[in-house]
Write a structure and sequence with these properties.
The chain is an alpha+beta fold. 44% of the residues lie in helices and 13% in strands. A hairpin with a 5-residue loop joins strand 3 and strand 4. It is globular and about 40 Å long.
Length: 178
């Protein structure tokens, strides 16, 4: 498979995690007064969260373009499909009532760090490779790093339950004028 097709497939697979959203819808912000975006349906327990074949640098570049075009912040989630706290984190952000608000604030991209190439991104973004996952990096639409959870902080929050993860993000939601 050509690198271009693999990148497109990777982007499509990751976007597929946000069931109910087309790539075009993911790039658009909610219009004031318009209907809220559909919430993602319950995710299957065994469904993979991370695309183990995707090239992380390419994923980040592709999603950074979506973030820049939409004015939303990029949320990079580093982890693996075998990671219990990663699954708990994913479940928390996909909770029906929370997801619509979350996706209007962030463009999430999931980077599988079980391979050597993507694992090196942990160091690039100043995450402790030995820390429990998921590792989280929040970037502004222009790619400036805003916050890094590098020492297993999100794993600890994920163990506290969905509400703890959601409260973390709610505290970081940008206020919008009405």
């Amino acid at each position: 498979m050509s690198p271009r097709k693999r990148s497109a497939l990777s982007l499509g697979l990751t976007l597929g995690l946000f069931a109910g959203f087309s790539p075009a819808a993911l790039g658009e912000q909610k219009k004031p007064g318009g209907p809220p975006p559909a919430a993602a349906p319950a995710l299957q327990r065994s469904a993979p969260i991370f695309d183990s074949d995707a090239i992380g640098k390419r994923q980040i570049a592709d999603y950074q373009k979506v973030a820049l075009d939409s004015g939303r912040r990029l949320l990079i989630v580093f982890g693996t499909n075998e990671c219990g706290p990663c699954r708990a984190f994913n479940r928390a952000i996909h909770e029906k009532q929370f997801f619509a608000a979350f996706i209007n604030q962030f463009v999430p991209v999931y980077i599988d760090v079980s391979s050597g190439t993507n694992a090196s991104l942990l160091v690039d973004y100043h995450l402790n490779p030995a820390a429990e996952q998921p590792g989280i990096v929040i970037l502004m639409p222009d790619a400036r790093v805003v916050e890094v959870l590098a020492q297993g902080e999100m794993a600890a929050l994920s163990r506290k339950g969905d509400a703890a993860v959601q409260e973390f993000f709610l505290a970081r939601f940008l206020k919008t004028e009405k």
